């Protein structure tokens, strides 16, 4: 998506943009950081905003979106085939307050499975991932706990202690024909389309942010950066559709997306994303991650109406 921007195929007469690749998130933006803007976890931005600690402004441009049904995995021989079957299970998560996992728990909540209806364990996906605090202040003895003895979750899933794992990134070997793991829902595409029909959006995961001091000093800059990224996305999509032979079924996949979803499914702007943003704020509050409900205008108020000026 950002390749045209990085390669200089799209440019702005008002902004000079240098893009750095980073290994992991989150990354500090603004202040003493070398970065003036960047991709950020939507949930973490909302949390810092609700606590009055945010030093960045969110721009209503979601750099990562995705349905989360495919991110629920289990063993190939597991009897679990529905969301409802996860009730009472031991479920591993890569991070409790992560945006993606919050959306995934929202899928369960829609099916009637509340936090107290399962047993949750936060930990590293595999032995290659670092041991770190993945719960923060959200632990609850007997209900939401760290993985016992820091066992990698895929090892635990393999031996049958965990019943399912929520993960945005599939472990090594998952794409093998002989993989011992699978997606819990056999027809994820149907579940995702049903979800879109019900809510009308593809969930936003990561959002564009900018150093607040910079945004206040140059109020046209947030919109200018967002527009530049949108132009890069449009060019990347056009090129992707032309050069679709990187995998045998890529053209079919892009055709399906174009026919199944409206062209505006990944549109930027506050109004295009208002319902999704409001729903996510409600989910974070209901899941006891946000200490208070935020108003949508409060989240994007300083950047949503800004327009680039000469």
CATH topology of the largest domain: D-Maltodextrin-Binding Protein, domain 2
What sort of overall outline do the alpha carbons produce when their principal axes are compared? Answer: globular
End-to-end separation: 27 Å
Strand order of the largest sheet: 6-5-4-7-3-8
Mean pLDDT, to the nearest integer, reads: 94
List keywords for this structure.
310 residues, alpha/beta, D-Maltodextrin-Binding Protein, domain 2, 6-stranded mixed β-sheet, 3-stranded antiparallel β-sheet, disordered C terminus
Describe the structure.
The chain has 310 residues and is an alpha/beta fold. It has two domains: 3-66 and 213-241 and 268-300, no CATH class; 69-199, D-Maltodextrin-Binding Protein, domain 2 (3-Layer(aba) Sandwich), CATH 3.40.190.10. Helices cover 34% and strands 14% of the residues. It contains ten helices and nine strands. The protein has helices at 3-7, 42-50, 99-110, 153-159, 188-199, 212-217, 221-242, 250-260, 270-286, 296-300, and strands spanning 37-41, 56-65, 72-75, 90-93, 119-122, 144-146, 164-166, 181-183, 204-211. The strands form two sheets. Strands 6-5-4-7-3-8 form a six-stranded mixed β-sheet, covered by helices on one side. The longest helix is centred in the C-terminal third of the chain and has 22 residues, at 221-242. The two termini are 27 Å apart. 34% of the residues are buried. The model is unreliable at 305-310 (pLDDT under 50).
């Amino acid at each position: 998506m950002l390749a045209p921007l990085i390669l200089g195929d799209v440019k702005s007469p008002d902004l000079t943009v240098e893009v750095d690749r980073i290994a992991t998130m989150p990354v500090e933006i603004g202040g003493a950081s070398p970065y003036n803007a960047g991709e950020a976890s939507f949930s973490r931005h909302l949390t810092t905003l609700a606590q009055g600690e945010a030093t960045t402004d969110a721009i209503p441009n979601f750099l990562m979106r995705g349905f989360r049904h495919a991110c629920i995995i289990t063993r190939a021989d597991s009897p679990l085939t529905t969301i409802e079957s996860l009730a009472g299970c031991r479920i591993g998560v890569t991070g409790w307050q992560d945006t993606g996992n919050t959306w995934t728990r929202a899928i369960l909540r829609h099916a009637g499975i509340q936090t107290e209806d399962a047993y949750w364990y936060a930990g590293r996906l595999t032995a290659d991932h670092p041991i770190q605090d993945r719960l923060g202040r959200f632990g609850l003895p007997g209900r939401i706990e760290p993985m016992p003895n820091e066992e990698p979750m895929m090892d635990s899933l393999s031996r049958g202690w965990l019943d399912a794992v929520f993960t945005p990134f599939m472990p090594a070997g998952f794409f093998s024909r002989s993989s011992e793991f699978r997606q819990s829902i056999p027809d994820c595409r149907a579940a995702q389309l049903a979800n879109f029909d019900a809510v009308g959006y593809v969930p936003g995961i990561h959002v564009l942010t900018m150093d607040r001091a910079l945004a206040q000093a140059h109020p046209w800059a947030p919109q200018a950066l967002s527009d530049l990224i949108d132009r890069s996305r449009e060019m990347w999509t056009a090129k992707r559709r032309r050069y679709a032979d990187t995998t045998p079924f890529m053209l079919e996949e892009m055709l399906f997306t174009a026919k199944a979803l409206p062209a505006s499914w990944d549109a930027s702007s506050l109004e295009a994303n208002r319902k999704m943003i409001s729903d996510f704020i409600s989910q974070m509050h209901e899941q006891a991650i946000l200490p208070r409900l935020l108003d949508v205008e409060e989240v994007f108020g300083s950047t949503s109406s800004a327009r680039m000026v000469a």
